[in-house]
Amino acid sequence: MNDVFLKACRGEKVEYTPVWLMRQAGRYLPEYQAVRGNVDFLTLCKTPELAAKVTLQPVDILGVDAAILFSDILIAVEAMGMNLEFSDKKGPVLSEPIRTKSAVARLTVPDTEDSMPFVLETIKILRKELKVPLIGFSGAPFTLATYMIEGGSSKNFLHTKKMMFQNRGLFDYLMKKLTKTVISYLSAQIVAGAQAVQLFDSWAGVLAPSDYKESALPYVKKAVTAIRKEHPETPIIYFVNDCAGILKDAKKSGADVIGIDWRVDMSEAVKKLGKKVVIQGNLDPCALFLPKEMIDDRVIDILDKAKAAKGHIFNLGHGILPETPVENAIAMVEAVHKYSRS
Amino acid sequence: MNDVFLKACRGEKVEYTPVWLMRQAGRYLPEYQAVRGNVDFLTLCKTPELAAKVTLQPVDILGVDAAILFSDILIAVEAMGMNLEFSDKKGPVLSEPIRTKSAVARLTVPDTEDSMPFVLETIKILRKELKVPLIGFSGAPFTLATYMIEGGSSKNFLHTKKMMFQNRGLFDYLMKKLTKTVISYLSAQIVAGAQAVQLFDSWAGVLAPSDYKESALPYVKKAVTAIRKEHPETPIIYFVNDCAGILKDAKKSGADVIGIDWRVDMSEAVKKLGKKVVIQGNLDPCALFLPKEMIDDRVIDILDKAKAAKGHIFNLGHGILPETPVENAIAMVEAVHKYSRS
Fold this sequence. Notes:
The structure is a homodimer.
Chain A: H1 4-9, H2 30-36, H3 41-46, H4 48-62, E1 67-68, H5 75-79, E2 84-87, E3 91-94, H6 101-106, H7 112-115, H8 117-129, E4 134-139, H9 141-150, H10 158-166, H11 168-192, E5 196-201, H12 209-230, E6 236-240, H13 247-250, E7 257-260, H14 266-273, E8 278-283, H15 292-306, E9 311-316, H16 326-341
Parallel strand pairs in A: 1-4, 4-5, 5-6, 6-7, 7-8, 8-9
Antiparallel strand pairs in A: 2-3
């Protein structure tokens, strides 16, 4: 069992810097495409044998130090009672956006065993197969709220901010339900076998810092505290996208590891996050289109700068892009392992 | 003549904080809709009487301290030889994206008098009518390059970064041509009567800080230096969107004023930009959907924090949204004037 990733999460000394990639089970891999060619995306998420299969693929192909459950952050939103579809053009579509008190009232805090048994089943299969730790995950409350309120992706997040600004009670009501869901969902994943969990706050970065602090962070904090209380041994990673302006606050989430995007220099991130938190990140996913020797340079730069942190887990600053050459992803993983040893 | 805005640009003492809004001539105004209802967007940009008319509308309606020429950053791209269309659904479309050396070679550095006479004509009409200073503008070289290389808007800017990473010579060739265009275009606007100019770097924030420093900033610097040399009296504003991670570098552009988006707290921005530069910004455009008394609170907060800077011009952190209630925009302008006097 390769436990370098878990050690790094806890800030323990490691022989080399562990690495995994957000969306490492994904479309850039021909092996994934072969599986996905026969089933639609949601069926793939909900069929434990297939979800486990694609989760395993990058572990061997890339040589990464952790696996992440193949699923989608909106699976839990569907389980709360919304109608979810994935369109190739528009991405996720939630056909009846949440805008009223009665709509929030109708949402349930799902029991994972009952509503998402396939997730727990996938985790159990994976734990038998994996030689590296398994990361479970969930969307963070604010990010899930944006999808529910907007009805999918958004450009300006106007509906979300309008609710936040004009109907604070309703917004809080929704966020509380979401926070309960996140806590129970991640706890169930841990009980089933997930060895670390990551909260994805993909859209927290669209908030002004004061709004982030007031309307997103408190719910993350609550989730982190509750999960830690139930599962004190399980590392919690909090990924915040477009985080440069809110890093000091993100630290207050209490997560063991803060994941950062590529728009902030690693030196500055270390300075803002301080010595008490492990950092995960932060190569620009587009940098995997560089010639290999230049990928090396970027890896070395990030490794060097992250030395000043409590600990470092190498990752991209966002999900790997479908167009990425697999050999470059492999080269990146090798570079991380090679240069962090010396 | 109200010259508070120009004084503030120069860091001189002012009686109150001047304010204008990015996209203040736009769809949120029924008066704009009435004009736009009869002509398509590009025709509106290219008809001096109409462009002047919509430029003037918000000056009276909102009571702002500056007007900004009604136009589009892609007008200059079209003049360089690309085919530009605006689709209601997809936004701007440049049908033949620039990806090869021959495509860059075919682009011209346009003479503004010959290729965009309507812009100069609009400026001349406006200077006769306006009682506040007129701001001319251009896209910054990197932002213009993204549209040209992607063929429009983009999610990941992969084509742009691929060219930057894989074909540096070609990227630089394009950026040099763009920089020359920006310099000559803004100089022509100043000669025609623009009293300040703003460079919009709407997409600089998608770059990792090291890439921004190497691939976007040097061209902005070059443009700022050249324009200042020809027109030492004309203030230059450099707006950088999603700037939290690159603010310290953006200062090196040499611009008189740095415009910032809403994702960075004004206190932090002042700390990073120091005492030698005037700051413009940075209310979240969505905050105009707050109840009016809460808009006041946000205005006061930004005004207070910006006091530590060399000077401050109040603005939104991005363009005003089409859905914005006009009375809230007016309330914001009034709040800026009221609270900055005391």
